[in-house]
Amino acid sequence: MNRHLISAGDLAKDDALLILDTAEELARVSERSIKKLPTLRGRTVVNLFFEDSTRTRISFEAAAKRLSADVINFSAKGSSVSKGESLKDTALTLEAMGADAVVIRHGASGAPHRLATWVRGSVVNAGDGTHEHPTQALLDAFSMRRRLGGLDGRRITIVGDVLHSRVARSNVLLLATLGAEVTLVAPPTLLPVAVGTWPCEVSYDLDAVLPKSDAVMMLRVQKERMNAAYFPSEREYSRRYGLDRDRFAKMPDDAIVMHPGPMNRGMEIAAEVADSPRSTIVEQVANGVTIRMAVLYLLLGGETVA
């Protein structure tokens, strides 16, 4: 594996499978009464979050602590960053503290890539702007593999606000690497200009795609990133691109429903669909800790999992 995890596109198939297989081993450890391993004892992991996050930050913190690493949580609010300190100066401070790994979430696309040029430790991208979120794609792939058996040849449909979704881009790149066939479904206004270069198909008709899908991932409509009217109304969006009970019935009986969270219940996904036995939404949160343990373990060269 590379020293950093910045893009899902950086992972070769063997790298991605190594992470998924390592996570499978670590999941068995997580089922024990004592979940802690000594593998990263003496290592320091810094969570450097310039954007608000609940699930991702706590997930990385739990993952590092279960591997016995020391964890420093750094929030931009109330720190020198709020006083105007640059990302480079923050990086040099972390370097002086001897951080072995820096997990960064930043509002600017490309920030983790710049950070990787300034620190000697490993950099893990926990979401940068509208660019990528590779560990989310890994936990999604892990969740799919556990439910569907394998990903090679599986048909995965990703629906919704692709334009503002770093999750969608990372999932398309990773799933294509793992041999899945990905279809994006969205209004034309919510697709990136360069989507034609992505390794996937594009459709505007959700009803036509659902019966052929092994997994359907609904994306949150990111209203906080929208500075214009991308669709006529929330009701109209939900009517055309929301996963309600009737659309859910069109999916194959063994197909699963996913969502990276947080959800807009009743808009992109109906509550009864989100809470159905075929939904993996709660599993995705639990699998996030396991996948992030695997990533930190492999990047920091932990001892053998036992």
Tell me about this structure.
With 306 residues, the protein is of the alpha/beta class. It folds into 2 domains: 8-132 and 285-299, Rossmann fold (3-Layer(aba) Sandwich); 134-280, 3-Layer(aba) Sandwich (Rossmann fold), CATH 3.40.50.1370. It has 11 helices and 9 strands. It has helices spanning 13-30, 55-66, 87-97, 111-116, 134-148, 166-177, 206-209, 234-241, 245-250, 271-274, 281-299, and strands at residues 44-49, 70-75, 101-106, 122-128, 155-159, 181-185, 201-203, 215-218, 256-258. Strands 7-6-5-8-9 form a 5-stranded parallel β-sheet, covered by helices on one side. It is globular.
Could you give a short description of this structure?
Residues 153-299 form the Aspartate/ornithine carbamoyltransferase Asp/Orn-binding domain. It is an enzyme of class 2 (transferase). With 306 residues, the chain is of the alpha/beta class.
List keywords for this structure.
306 residues, alpha/beta, Rossmann fold, 2 domains, five-stranded parallel sheet, four-stranded parallel sheet, 11 helices, EC 2.1.3.2, Asp_carbamoyltransf_Asp/Orn-bd, aspartate carbamoyltransferase activity
Query: How many separate domains?
Result: 2
Q: What profile does the largest beta sheet have? A: 5 strands, parallel
Q: How far apart, in Å, are the first and last alpha carbons?
A: 21 Å
The gross shape turns out to be globular
According to CATH, the homologous superfamily of the largest domain is Aspartate/ornithine carbamoyltransferase
Q: Which whole number gives the mean pLDDT?
A: 91
Number of strands: 9
Helix-strand category: alpha/beta
Hey, roughly how much beta strand do the residues contain?
5-15%
Reading off the top of the CATH hierarchy, the class of the largest domain is best stated as: Alpha Beta
In terms of per-residue confidence, which ranges show pLDDT below 50 for 5 or more consecutive residues?
Answer: none
Give me the number of helical elements. Answer: 11
CATH topology of the largest domain: Rossmann fold
